Structure formats: structure tokens, C-alpha cells
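Input record (Table S2, row 467):
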Amino acid sequence: MLILSVFALDKTGNISYNIIIFLIRRFVFIMSLKVLKFGGSSLADAEHFRQVAEIVKSDPARRYVVASAPGKRFSNDTKVTDLLYKCYELAYNEEDITDVFEEIKQRYNDIIADLGIELDLSEVFEKIRLSLLHSTGRDYIASRGEYLNAMVLAKYLGFSFFDAKKAVFFNEDGSFNAERTNDAMREALSHMEYAVIPGFYGSMPNGTIKTFSRGGSDITGSIVARAVSATIYENWTDVSGFLMADPRIIDNPAPIKTITYKELRELSYMGATVLHEDAIFPVRYSKIPINIRNTNRPEDNGTFIVPETDDIGEHVITGIAGRTGFSSITIEKAMMNAELGLGRKVLQVLEENGVSFEHFPSGIDTMTVIVSTRALQEKRADILAGICKNVNPENVFVEENIALLAVVGRGMVKAKGTAARIFMSLANAGVNIRMIDQGSSELNIIIGVDANDYVTALGAIYNEFVK
Ligand code: ASP
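Output record (aspartic acid complex):
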């Protein structure tokens, strides 16, 4: 502060507060750099654009903004991305696209008119319309939702617009090319102090557009955060972070203040949504924290997703998530434990049939493989025949209707008796446990129950640890 004061003396020798403010802002600018991603619901209409601008402009460190396409404005509204997919299908089937296409144009034109900005998108709309009529790729059409929205937002904020196709790259086989992307994004953004980048898409080696899977703007945000070595990646959405359990099942679940990357992976894999499950990978390299924030309640701190932390949080567990729709294949054979390569042979059958396994609990003479019921459906006969041929079991059978629950928490590593508390709470609630699997990291315990018991089981565990 002393240094700032010395430099902040004006011509009359007095301290100028404007200069001090300027220097502080400059200091913040150099010391911290924030990447923000706004989801579709945060950019659904002009009112939300105003909130977004207020958030961005309130902090000079908020320099790079990744935009989604306009989302739903009310519950039975349609996201622009869905309208674009619909247009594509119509055009593909040589049906009339006029109404749907007009609806899309209207969404953007309403935002532009309401914000009072000078931006004429008619040429871009026409290009998209022609692409639709000439059956240009489905991904290209879908990506235009973000492209247009980022253009509008850049104009409104007075930021540069940077097209993601120039620096988000996929390989020939469709996989994401992380290193080439990182180099190109870093280089491009080093020439822009403030920029808006459309999320969700990038380009193939031949220049055509390819999108990530749905919700992929979260990944773009993470890519940008890594490229510019952000101090934080703020992911702005319509909820104030993660909750400890699904609010459709648990009434008013407690919020999660801090969660590690690993815990989040476990929970999102098991069905907890908010952030795209691949969004962690780019920032993981550089250990950049992600902060999930609510555009409608910017005063809330939201959830911090951090590489690691010593703070184990308020409860022993961090969260519970789960999914129904699993089946188990159980293989029984005497002296199974002594038979070398048996597990490999069973898993090989699954691999050959293109079915991946979720869990693999085993006993001395039995082993069970948990797979998705949907994936198993078509291949069931081939898989059972393959297992019989490969390992010659005494018995092999499939049980459907299994739900898996993941109880996740870094606090479980040190706490004793966590498993006992989980099992006791399930027993007291009359839930029969069909499978248990504790990862060696001790970060999670996976429990298989009958799908009909799923809701009861989740409630029982939540109440045991949180209430
Ligand atoms: N607009 C795309 C979707 O609806 C991508 C995104 O929002 O992240 O999935």
C-alpha cells in the first residue's frame, strides 16, 4: 500500500484516489485471471444477459467468457440447441424448416433488440439457412447456437469474439486433441485481453465442425481456463453449486461447499449432474479450482471443486448419488479362487461384445459383474454363451433391476465405522444389500440394492450422515 501511495501522488502532491483505484485494479488484473462459463439458462434472454454483464464487469480479473446457446426461459420452453437439431432433422428429411428457423432467429433478435445493441446477424442466419438446405453436418448446425450467442455477448460486453473452431481441435478418430488445443488457445488468447469464446464445439483436422457431447460448453470453459492458466474457472449456472443428494429424492439437501476433483468424478459418474463429467480433465493438469456459481444469486459462494484439500468438510461424507438400470451377471464355480485367468476370460467375453463393466465384486467361488441393463440387453445370449464356453462355470445367471448408490467422501478415508453406519442405516430401513464394493482409495463405497429400494436407501444413508 505504501508503494501504491507513493505512486499515487498527483500534481499537487495529494493522493489521488482514482489513481489508487486504478493501480489496485491493475494489481488484481495481473495477480488473478478468471475464466467464466455461462450456461444456457444464464443466457436465455436479455434479462439474463444483463445479469451476466453485471457479474463480468464487477471484477476486472474476469477476462475470458465462454458462452452456451440460449437455454430455456421457462419450464416448457425449448433450448436453441434443440431447435437447431430439430431444424437439421427437418432439412434432412426435406421438410419445411421455415417456422423453426424463424423461431431461432427470433430468440437472438429479441435479445439484441432488448439490449439495444447494434448487431445485424442476418448474413450469419442466411449462411446457416443455406447450410441446412445443403445438408451441412449436424454438428455444424448444432454449434451455431453457441456461435451466435457468443457474438451477441461479445458485442454487449465490448469484448473480442474468438471462434472456438480456431483453437479447439479433435483428432481424425473424433477424440479431443488436448495438447494441440492448449497450445493454440494459449497463443490466440495471449493477444486478447478480454474475449468471449463460444462453447461446445471445435474443428476436425479437415476444418469441419465437431461438437462435444451435450453440455459440452463446460469442457470449453475448462480448456480456456487451462490455456490461460486461470486462477479460477467460474462455472455460472442456475443452481448455487452441488447438493449432497438429488433434490428430487431428498427434501432440501445440504449444499456441498468444497469437493475434490476425484469425489466429483465419482458423483457425476453416478448421476449427479450440474457439470459435464469430462469438464475436469483440462483443468486437472494445472490444478485450477472450479467454482460452480448461480447467475441468479451471485451473492452465494457456490461449490468449490479443488484438486485436493485437508478440510474434510462438515460431514464424513461429501455426497451420495446413484442410478437405476443395472444388471448383475453372477458366475459360480468351485475352486474359482485357484483358477488362473478366470476373471480375465469373463471380462474378455464382455469386451468382445462391446459391453463395459461397472463393478466386479468377487467371492471365493463366485464372481459378479455389474453392467448396464441397456447395454446387456441385445448381447445377453451371446455373453452368457461366451462365458460358458470360456470358463465352464457350474452356474451363471443374470439378475436385473439393480440400483447402485455411491457414497463418496474424502472424510471416509480416516473415519472409522463409516461402512458400518451405512449398512446399519440400510438394515434399519429394511433395505437388502445386494452388492458392496469399496474402492481401494476408500473414497467411495458402492452399494447395489434392488431398484425398488433405491429411494429408501438413499434417504436412509442421507439421514444417517447429514440429519
Ligand atoms: N448448447 C449445448 C447443449 O444444450 C451445449 C451446452 O450448453 O453446453 O447441450
